[in-house]
Amino acid sequence: MTVTSPYSRPHPTEVAHVTSEAAELLEVLWGRASTGPVSASQLRVLFILEHNEGINLRTLADALGSTPPSTSRLCDRLEAVGFVRRETAVSSRREVQLELSRHGRAFLADLRARREAALQSVLEQMPAAHRAALLTGLDAFCAAASAQIHDNETTDDARTA
Asked: SS3 for 88?
């Protein structure tokens, strides 16, 4: 891993490389903490439903970049383990809304707690000044990524209108 001086101005390419390496290490750490009964694709469904309660299957499929039949099978499995509920929409009896169940919410809370514990054990090994710099950088990264995702969603919505 390349480490530059905090006083230098690293090029975005270098930062992207190091961030990618950090993301891969996070996947390993989180993989060790994630002993749950769901696949990575199913976990994405749970995260999307957590933030988009009551969406329909087509909207979920679009968010996943998948097809409705594949998404339906993912939801079938999640419903079988009790993490997802399908409800008939009030506005149309033909439309089905997807929701996280109480069990699904509890699973996500437990998963996050295990992931945070794994991260905390690594962060405790870092000097306080580096943790502070990481926090500042991650805050800025989250803001930039959220803005870019929001901009892309707005552009995608405009193209489909």
From this structure: strand
Q: Where are any strands of DSSP class E within the chain?
A: 55-56, 84-88, 96-100
Strand order in 84-88's β-sheet?
55-56, 96-100, 84-88
Q: Provide, for the chain, the percentages of residues in helix, strand and coil under a 3-state DSSP scheme, each rounded to the nearest 5.
A: 70, 5, 25
pTM flag (> 0.90): no
Report how far apart, in Å, the C-alpha atoms of 141 and of each of 77, 112, 118, 145 are. Answer: 34, 20, 21, 6
Give the pLDDT score at 103: 96
How confident is the model over 103-115, as a mean pLDDT?
94
| Torsion, Cα of 130, 116, 98, 37 (10° steps) | 130
